[in-house]
Amino acid sequence: MPKNTSQRTIVITGGLGNLGSKLCRHLLSDATPPKVILLEHPAFIDAKKAPPHPNATIVPCDLGSPNLNELEAILRGDGNDDGVDTVIHFSAVNPYPNAGWSESAQSMDHTFNIFQMAVKCHVRRVILTSSNHVMGGYKDDTSFGPSSVHPNSPPNVGTVPLDPNTLKISGDAKAYAAAKLAGERLAMTLGSMYGGITSFVVLRIGWCQPGENLPNTLCAAGSPPEFLLETEDSNATNNGGMSEGDAKDEIWFKQMWLSNRDYLRYFEAAIDLDVPTVESDTSASHEMQHVHRHVRKGFVLVNAMSANSDAKWNLDETKRLLGVVSQDDSLA
């Protein structure tokens, strides 16, 4: 890691999930590892998934309806340290594109609860794992070419499969993306109010699959097979060969791929990214008045995909702000 973090405490929500566990193992592999607290819903705690490291602690916590006193005590520290330095937020009720609106609303609760408590407890940095699906509506917009979707482009939520059978099993990601967008806007608002103490970094990540996360296992459904919805047409869809719509969508999903290596480097950089602590003069330029501007007091938002060939995602600001250049390409 870029700085000596042996005295730092990092909270990872959804810490036993795919992304949380990968990041935890990476952070703890450092020569001077931080303390890592893994917040996880009690129903999903499995001791076998706990990283075998003395600096890692698993804490049961339902962020949908948390015990606020207990959550505050976690973020403020146990009296033997200065409290939590960084919160990295992954937790969601359903972290896949087939999430329904009820699940989306509950995921918003997770985000709102941890963000507000982080501000109350003067946590220095909060990192939100947002999603490419916030911008998924650009998928079939032919007016947008390679590197044309910037972090300050207007949101366009949902990624609707072209094949109607694939849509049935994968969902359209609209409810899922709405929860992510709500988290982005809350982060922006809280950053503008409290950015001198608690700052927010939002990473709109691409598709980072469980395990090895190889490009050849990406598919047009946009989710691992075990997380797809079951329908009467599922077998026919799976056994009938790839449709024209799926062939087009598979390219889109490969272009949003986020390799394990790039994923870990982006999040590591986000922990110590310099975020503005004051608002710039809004009269200085048109950009400063942009409602979707991605850098402002207490707030930075960037795209976080790998450098996949001909992808619509623009990574210029990712390189400039995080100082990380993607090393991987799913289509190379």
Structure report:
This protein has an eight-stranded mixed sheet with strand order 3-2-1-4-5-6-8-7, sandwiched between helices. The model is unreliable at 234-238 (pLDDT under 50). By secondary structure, it is α/β, with parallel strands linked by helices. Strand 7 (295-296) and strand 8 form a beta hairpin. Helix content is 32%, strand content 13%.
In short:
This protein is 32% helix and 13% strand. It has 332 residues and is an alpha/beta fold.
Principal-axes shape call: globular
C-alpha-based Rg, rounded: 19 Å
Give the averaged pLDDT, no decimals.
90
Tally of contiguous helical segments? 9
What is the quaternary state of this protein? Answer: single chain
Structural class label: alpha/beta
Percent strand equals 5-15%
**SSE sequence, one letter per element:** EHEEHEHEHHEHHHEEH
Distance between the termini: 28 Å
Number of strands: 8
Sheet with the most strands, sense and barrel status? 8 strands, mixed
The spatial strand order of the largest sheet comes to 3-2-1-4-5-6-8-7
Q: Which stretches of 5+ consecutive residues score pLDDT under 50?
A: 234-238
Task: Indicate the percent of residues in helices.
Answer: 25-40%
Brief descriptors of the model:
alpha/beta, eight-stranded mixed sheet
What is the element layout, followed by pairings?
Layout: E1 9-13, H1 18-28, E2 35-40, E3 56-60, H2 68-76, E4 86-89, H3 101-120, E5 125-131, H4 164-170, H5 174-194, E6 199-205, H6 234-239, H7 244-255, H8 260-271, E7 295-296, E8 299-304, H9 316-322
Parallel strand pairs: 1-2, 1-4, 2-3, 4-5, 5-6, 6-8
Antiparallel strand pairs: 7-8
Helix pairs in contact: 1-8, 2-3, 3-5
